[in-house]
Amino acid sequence: MDYLYLYYFHSLGKDNHKQFLIHLRQHQGDLFATFEEFFSSWILEIFKGENVLFYKNLFTSLDPRAIHRFITFNEANQQKELRKTSYAAHEKMQEITKAMLKEIDQTKLAVVDDQQLELLFRLLIHITFSTIADGYRHHCENGEYDIQKINEEFHLKLNWLQKGMETNERGNH
After folding, report:
1. According to a count of CB atoms within 10 Å of the terminal CB, is the N or C end of the chain lower?
2. 159 half-sphere exposure, CB direction, 13 A CA radius
3. What's the pTM value of the predicted model, to 2 decimals?
4. Distance CA 45, CA 99 (A)
């Protein structure tokens, strides 16, 4: 994955981060409600917005390792490869991420510390990216976007993570 893609993606994402933070505050720090609402609006930009070709190229080329690089943009070996301009953007991104994490109401989550919260946040981002990538792959195979199906798949994954997949003895969730 070219680091130029990474830089451009983070440049495009500045407004998205601000919007995410606004949604997070509107939902009083409810991480899952925020991801639900944000994804529903962001997906329209991803699949129908002015940068659709960039996003399509980006998300169709993502594999699990590439997704991990986007989520863990702060690894030391990556920082060495980034130019000063992209490193400055990275620093700003880290500040925004820290601000987001501070706004999350941890009492609604089964996390015991900030490290677990960050891990959950990265997992939610991974689910978001992989769902978008699956949507683009479906488009390549079938020639159409099904935004409703992509949205439903994301919400199903989010629900599984939030409420779990185990059933009780009666077969209920």
Report:
1. C
2. 7
3. 0.77
4. 24
Task: Confirm if 13 and 91 have CB atoms less than 8 A apart.
Answer: no
Any idea what the Cα angle at residue 61 is, between residues 91 and 92, rounded to 5°? 10
Q: What is the spatial distance between Cα 167 and Cα 170, in angstroms, rounded to a whole number?
A: 8
In the numeric block, the tokens 């060495």 are attached to: 80
What gap in Å lies between CA 56 and CA 49, rounded to an integer?
A: 11
Q: Give Cα separations from 39 to 64, 110, 113, 135 (angstroms).
A: 20, 22, 26, 13
For 79-132, write each residue's pLDDT tens digit.
554 454 455 666 776 777 788 899 999 999 999 998 999 899 989 998 998 899
Q: Give me 27's structure tokens.
A: 């939902």
**Do residues 45 and 95 touch, judged by C-beta distance below 8 A?**
no
Q: Would you state the pLDDT for residue 34?
A: 95
Cα(22)–Cα(153) distance, integer angstroms: 24
| Phi, psi (deg, nearest 5) at residue 73 | -65, -5
- Contact residues for 171 (Cβ-Cβ < 8 A; gap 6+): none
Q: Cα angle vertex 170, ends 169, 173, to 5°?
A: 90
> How close are the terminal C-alpha atoms of the chain, in Å?
40
